Structures are given as structure tokens and as C-alpha cells.
């Protein structure tokens, strides 16, 4: 009996466990974005936040499925570039490439800014070493750049260790914070009569979509599992639903401890991670909680930073056709890390702004483009392998959601939307 190479290949591919892909997806979804959530959502407060998180999570899953749907019609390894060029034409191809690079760079900046602030705060508080976050940002970036330049195997190992640390820290933080939660805070009982929350709803969208972002991974998942939509769907569902659970819990713990009014001074100071952690520490007034929170913040930002900038590193190497030898990798590292580090040394506290702008660009290639791709690929191929639930109406819902998110960010940049501050 002869078995074709393809059949053998797919038999082998089928054996790959869902766990690996689910881990990668979870690691990408749950990043520093979650540190922006309590601050960005303080205007709408707890109950509304849960509602928006559920809706955003749903839309982001559907957008991921639509991307997968289109991707399955192409050769394994086909990227956003191939899909948009073939299905949507020049305009969307260029728009996707520009917004894709923008999101990676601005997130790299956000992570450097967040990490720098947390590291500075840790050094000052525990080692009485006063170094400004401009300098820790640059030093931290050099260390990360060196690790990435040195080898991607090293990055893989270090990321695993950091992820492990992050999850241990997560549960330690949550377990300890739980005891301090005050339901009165969550219900905002001290709010004067007639307090309105809804006007602040739209401006939370860019932060929510970034926090559920993983969509750059879809082509890699296809590469990893082959054309096996079932497994890829499971990875996406596990990663995003786990993130949803975590974020609800995270808001419960943070909004249950810091009252809505107490978020105002945090926002006034730029809303970077260190300010947020300091405020939490001051309210909890416990030395051990301080240590746990600091440990958590350091691990969370460091693992995001490594993972996210590795994506940017590979993207730059491919785009500029830099070689994978020492010299080539050095060039790639320079192009990857110098712009965000430079921006951080000039403007160290833009964490929250950066996540907002990332949301603006992310809406293009992770929501609107997947909707358009699904529509175009259904017309062209009929998409026999996999179809996202909801038919054409859902495609429009997803696209409209993306447009609203972009408008929300643009309007709030011009101070047209009310901001809670
Ligand atoms: N979801 C990630 C950010 C991210 C967005 C888009 C793609 C990859 C990562 C976070 O919360 O930090």
C-alpha cells in the first residue's frame, strides 16, 4: 500500500497536541495589556467592564476565526502579506503592513516603558538605588536585545521561565488580593446620585482589543498544526477564554481594592504600571503584599517584552532581508530595539498612550482586515475547510466593531469623547 507524502505529513501533523499552541496563544494574549485595563476602565467601573470584556473577547475570537478561514485556502506559512495581496489588493496590503509594524513597534515601546518604570521602582524601594526610568529603560532594552541577538533558543528558555514565574506570581497576587476586596468598592456605593458610567464606554475599546490580541499568531498556528482547523480553533478558544477569566478576576481584585475616585490621581500621573502598583501598595498597607505585587509586575512585563519583541525581530529580519548570522542578527537587533528605546528615553511614561495607539492600528489588521478577508475568500474559494459561525451578518458586525474602536480612539485623542480624569 502506498501512502502519499501529503497524507503522511498530515498524519504526523495531526499528532501535535493542542497544549503547545494553546500555551503560545495564552502567552501572547495575556501580556502587559492587562495593566492598562483597570486604569482605562475606571470610568465605566466594574459591572460595565465585565460586559465590554465579554463582547470584545467574542469579537476578537470571531476575527481570529475569520483570519484562519482565509488562511486555510493558501499554502502553509502564507502570511498576512500574501493573504491581503491576493484577496484585497494593494491598498489593504499596504495598510496591513504599515499598521502591523506600527503595532509591534508601539507595543515594544509600551513594554519598555512599563518595564522601565517597574524596575526603577523596585530598585528604589528595595535596593535604595535611585535610577531614573529613562536609564533603566535603555539598560533593560540592551539586555533583552542581547538575549534575542544571542539565540532564539535562549529566548524560548528564558520566556518559559518568566512565564512560569508570571503564573506563580499571578496566583499569589490574586490569592492575596482576594482577601482585601471590598464589595462596596466594586459597586461604587459612595458615588453621588446621578453618576454616569456609560459616557466612558467607547474609549475603553482600544485597550480591550489590545488585551485580547493574538492575531499575528494565526499564520504561525497554521504553520505549526498544518491545515487542521479543529486544533487551531481550540488553541484560540483556550487562550482567549482563559484571558477573559483572568481579566475579570484582575478587575475584581483591583477595583475591589482601589475605589473609583482613587483612580483619578493614578490617571493624573500618567497611569503607568509603577504608579498603579504604588497606589495598590499604599491602600493595602502590607509589606508582604508590596513584595508580591512588585514580583508580579516585574515578571509580567519582562515576559511580554521578550515574547512581543521577538515577533518584531523576526518581522524586521524578514522585511529587511537581514541574514541569520551574527552580523545580520546584530543589524536586526539595532533596527528592532533602537527606535522604541530612544522614544522611551525621551518620553518614559507613555505606557497608557502607547496601548491606546496600538489599539487604533490593531483594529485595522486584527478586526477589519480579517472581516474583509473572510468575505473575499468566501467569494473566491467558498471556504470548504472551515467557516466562522454567523455568516455574512457576523462579518459586518466584526467590521463595524473595528470601525467604532478606531473612531473611539480618534475622537478621544481630539478630546471629543468624555474622559474620566
Ligand atoms: N495581548 C497582548 C498584546 C498583543 C497585541 C497584539 C498582538 C500581540 C500581543 C497584551 O495584552 O499585552
TrEMBL record:
The keyword Transmembrane applies. NCBIfam families: araaP (TIGR00837), PRK10483.1 (NF007789). PANTHER family: LOW AFFINITY TRYPTOPHAN PERMEASE-RELATED. It is found in: Cell inner membrane. Involved in transporting aromatic amino acids across the cytoplasmic membrane. GO terms for molecular function: aromatic amino acid transmembrane transporter activity. Pfam families: Trp_Tyr_perm. Coiled coil: none annotated. InterPro entries: Amino_acid_transport_2 (IPR018227), Trp_tyr_transpt (IPR013059). The keyword Flavoprotein does not apply. GO terms for biological process: amino acid transmembrane transport. It is a multi-pass membrane protein. Keywords: Amino-acid transport, Cell inner membrane, Cell membrane, Membrane, Transmembrane, Transmembrane helix, Transport. Belongs to the amino acid/polyamine transporter 2 family. Mtr/TnaB/TyrP permease subfamily. It comes from the Bacteria. This is Aromatic amino acid permease. Gene3D superfamilies: Amino acid/polyamine transporter I. GO terms for cellular component: plasma membrane. It comes from Limnobaculum zhutongyuii.
